[in-house]
């Protein structure tokens, strides 16, 4: 009986040893499989990154883009600390036609009780300047900018400015990769009036642009800030009409440049669109045409 028990115990012991060896081999195999899987994942990740880089390279070719051409021109201006740079389009439109003016808004404010004309003068001045280059040793630049847009009832008996919008801003400009530009900014926009006629708001925004040799695509998104000091006082519904985003597409065909912008697409009934065309006449002057729907 004892011999049998000893043999049985030995058999059980050998069984445990064999089982242990099997478990060890299984663990080793699993570890090899896991290691192979990790290597495959690493290889796939590297391949995906390479494909993504290749796609970006195709999207923004090595040749100088239209955006980089402008940035090179601005770099030359930066050398003179007393010169300002153009920011948004600067233009004078002697003939600007509004199909359906909002007569009620200006009731009682028109000089000499004149009639609000459909035809008027429209102009924009937009300038910027670098305030701090290589911020904290980086390639980023801090800019200050100012834009003023005017609507002038020039063709009435007594010419008067129907609307003037003022827009100062400050933004940090970065270049995450070639032919890409990303701006992070704060701006204030107001018509400069007070009381019930005031229209103003403050925004924090991100503006991203990517460019090829003949085209530019852009997207700007924003959030309203400091509402208590501006938008909530007299125009709490301004976001409903102005939205949270603006999209841009521009293409250069020969010497002609065509651009389309769209705003507030999340509310189609309040969406706004603008199409522009420009053609250079001299080194510093271009013909400019704009059509918009707001």
List keywords for this structure.
12 strands, 294 residues, disordered N terminus, single chain, twelve-stranded antiparallel beta sheet, 4 helices, 2 domains, Outer membrane phospholipase (ompla), Chain C, alpha+beta, 41% strand, globular
Short description:
The chain has 294 residues and is α+β, with helices and mostly antiparallel strands.
Q: What would your notes on this structure say?
A:
The protein is globular, with a radius of gyration of 32 Å. It starts with a helix and ends with a strand. It has 2 domains: 1-59; 66-293, Outer membrane phospholipase (ompla), Chain C, CATH 2.40.230.10. Residues 1-24 have low confidence and may be disordered. The chain is built from 4 helices and 12 strands, in the order H-H-E-E-E-E-E-E-E-E-H-H-E-E-E-E. It is α+β, with helices and mostly antiparallel strands and 294 residues long. Strands 1, 2, 3, 4, 5, 6, 7, 8, 9, 10, 11 and 12 form a 12-stranded antiparallel beta sheet that branches.
Give the SSE layout:
Elements: H1 2-59, H2 66-78, E1 85-86, E2 91-97, E3 119-133, E4 141-153, E5 160-174, E6 180-190, E7 200-211, E8 215-225, H3 231-234, H4 238-242, E9 245-253, E10 256-263, E11 272-280, E12 286-293
Antiparallel strand pairs: 1-3, 2-3, 3-4, 4-5, 5-6, 6-7, 7-8, 8-9, 9-10, 10-11, 11-12
